[in-house]
Amino acid sequence: MPAATVQSLVIAGLMPLLDRARWRSRQVGRSVLASFTTHLGPARDFDAMALVNTTDAFIWEQPERGFALAGTGIAARITASGPGRFDDARTQLQQLLDDAIVQQESGAALHPTPLSLAGFAFDPERPDNVAWFGYPDALVTLPRLLFTRSGSHLFITANALVAEDTSTTAVAGNLAALAERLIAEAIEPANEAAPGQLLDPGADARESWGESVEALTSTIATGNPGKVVLARRVTVESPEGFDPRAVLHRLRERFAECTVFAVRSGESCFVGATPEMLVSLRGRRVRCDCLAGTARRGTTSEEDDRIGAALLADEKERREHAFVARGIGESLAPFSANVHHADEPGLRRMANVQHLHTPIEATTDGDRHVLELVDALHPTAATAGLPRAEALALIREQEPFSRGWYAGAIGWIDADGGGEFAVALRSGLLREDVATLYAGCGIVTGSQPEREWVESEIKLAAMLYALNAVPQQSVGVQHAGPLQTGRPERTSQ
Question: For residues 225 and 447, is the Cβ–Cβ distance under 8 A?
Answer without folding.
Answer: no
